[in-house]
Amino acid sequence: MLPLASSTTSPGAGDFSSSWTWGAVIALVALVVSTWLVVHHRHRDQTVQWHQPDYDTASDALLVLNRLSLTTAVEGVTAELRELVDVVSRLRIAEQRSPELPFGVIVAELEGYRANVLPQNHADRLAADESLLDDHLALARVQGIRLEAARTAIVHVQRKIEKRTRN
Prior knowledge:
Elements: H1 13-68, H2 80-97, H3 103-115, H4 122-128, H5 133-166
Helix pairs in contact: 1-2, 1-5, 2-3, 3-5
């Protein structure tokens, strides 16, 4: 019968293997941790690169909305409305790139804003018929509500992007 374990060991062999084992364990742990850190940071960098154009588009939309908030939008007169069309197009592209982010809410609010602009001849029509004043004031109020709703949605999307890229 063969002995399964030898009870006699050579002197010094136990010391070498135990010190070698601890060094190997420490080196292995260091290797695993450093590899995990590299992979994690690489993944985070890729996420940042993926979401950067979306974040920039949301920032551009916020700038346009800030300029639009200074005055009531009038069809054909307000120059920022043409910029708003471009921003909405870029937001739709961002929505396709990242469907899990609520870019659709921003697009819906901005489309609602564009649907409520005052007609170009609103001053002439108002001078001729003062009963239109309430309608024009209602359009201006809806514009303000839509702007604030779009701003809120933009800030929400930007916070979600920042949360994803921070971790």
